[in-house]
From TrEMBL:
One of its GO terms (biological process) is molybdate ion transport. It comes from Planococcus versutus. Keywords: Metal-binding, Molybdenum, Signal. It comes from the Bacteria. InterPro entries: Membr_lipoprot_lipid_attach_CS, ModA, ModA/WtpA. This is Molybdate ABC transporter substrate-binding protein. GO terms for molecular function: metal ion binding; molybdate ion binding; tungstate binding. Molybdate binds at S34, S62, Y188.
Length: 256
């Protein structure tokens, strides 16, 4: 009897193994947290074209992902919300310089779950002493650095001392606003475009630099072909259309 049960078990295991599709390549992508929602759609459409590739995506702030890559974390492709972090990896020859390419741009907006009054003034809203304001951590999150730069240009940064809540990445700023833990938040326009809770959106003045998203294949990637194929998809016409649907702006030179 035991021999018969063992034979059945072995047969089921072999049957299960033979019916499971075998992925020929694994692709590890490190992507900025502000790409979380669009990447789900991007991955879904890409795997229709490349069904033999298995993808794993690791999200975080671009500076945190860059630090992980510097410490040897497994990754084949880096999709950053910060040109600065990409430049740092390139200076250490950790990415293939010839593969670095911009694939999207973004803007800053002031967001709230409440609609803003018509003709609302940015400075009046943000200087309201009763409003709590969430932004990204300026020293470690690109969104925070962009926010601080804009507020400094407007001479508002020092006036907000003690009134800001700092988030670990762009997605956490959105969560603070959507959950009501902060009345206001400075977020990317792409996150505002897809949020069901955010009703008030006002462009942040004082932005002096473009928010460019660059991507690159990592120099030590063991899956160079898969990484290049996905990067080509992101910068191609289908990928650019998906990015636009999720509120991103096209980057100059993105479409090959």
């Amino acid at each position: 009897m035991k021999k018969i049960l063992s034979l059945i078990t072995a047969t089921l295991v072999l049957s299960s193994c033979s019916s499971s599709p075998v992925k020929e390549e694994e692709l590890f992508v490190s992507a900025a947290s502000s790409l979380t929602e669009v990447m789900k759609k991007m991955e879904e459409e890409f795997l229709k074209v490349e069904p033999d590739i298995e993808m794993t995506v690791n999200y975080g702030s671009s500076s945190k992902l860059r630090s992980q890559i510097e410490q040897g974390a497994p990754a084949d492709l880096f999709l950053s919300a910060s040109q600065k972090d990409m430049d740092l990896l390139e200076s250490k020859q950790l990415v293939n310089a010839e593969s670095v390419k911009p694939f999207a741009e973004n803007q800053l907006v002031l967001a709230s779950v409440e609609e803003f009054p018509k003709n609302a003034d940015f400075s009046d809203l943000i200087l309201n002493p009763e409003a709590t304001i969430a932004i990204g951590e300026p020293d470690s999150v690109p969104l925070g650095a962009y926010s601080k730069s804009a507020l400094e240009t407007l001479n508002l940064w020092k006036l907000l001392d003690g009134r800001l809540i700092y988030a670990k990445d762009a997605r956490q700023v959105v969560t603070y606003v959507e959950s009501g833990n902060a009345e206001l938040g400075i977020i990317y326009s792409s996150d505002a475009a897809i949020s069901r809770e955010i009703a008030g959106i006002l462009e942040v003045p004082g932005q002096t630099e473009s928010i460019i998203y660059p991507g690159s294949v990592l120099a030590d990637s063991k899956n160079q072909d898969a990484a290049k194929a996905f990067m080509d998809f992101v910068t191609g016409s289908q990928g650019q259309t998906i990015l636009e649907e999720y509120g991103f702006l096209p980057a100059v030179g993105a479409v090959p």
